[in-house]
């Protein structure tokens, strides 16, 4: 059984017991978060929502906060001595999927 959820502008395929990294959520560590399911597959039967499956939800527990690896952006213009290096680290939340209900 699996479900597809949406958070942070992205969609994730999850199963019970999975741990996933998502865009940062402001809730505290150890707290529970619920997501509406966009699609649920159970025993070979697929339920697709419009936009979500009625009565289906995914519960997850926040396992921690972290930051992703640094992404380096380098800009260069020849003949003008212009060089610019920019670094960015995206903040992330680790979620542990506890249950998928409904569908």
Structural descriptors:
9 strands; 0% helix
For this structure, the quaternary state is single chain
Report the radius of gyration as a whole number of Å: 19 Å
Mean pLDDT across all amino acids: 94
User: In percent terms, what proportion of residues is strand?
Assistant: over 45%
- Main sheet specs: 7 strands, antiparallel
| Structural class category | mainly beta
Distance between the termini: 10 Å
Number of domains: 1
Total strands: the figure is: 9
In DSSP terms, counting alpha (H) and pi (I) runs of 4 or more, how many helices?
Answer: 0
From the spread of the alpha carbons, the general shape counts as elongated
Report the helical percentage. under 10%
H/E topology pattern: EEEEEEEEE
Pick out the low-confidence regions.
Answer: none
How would you explain this protein's 3D organization?
- This protein is an all-beta fold and 103 residues long.
- Strands 1, 2, 3, 4, 5, 6 and 9 form a 7-stranded antiparallel β-sheet that branches. The protein has a two-stranded antiparallel ribbon with strand order 7-8.
- It has no helices and 9 strands.
- It is 0% helix and 65% strand.
- It is elongated.
- The chain has one domain.
- The mean pLDDT is 94.
- A hairpin with a 2-residue loop joins β1 and β2.
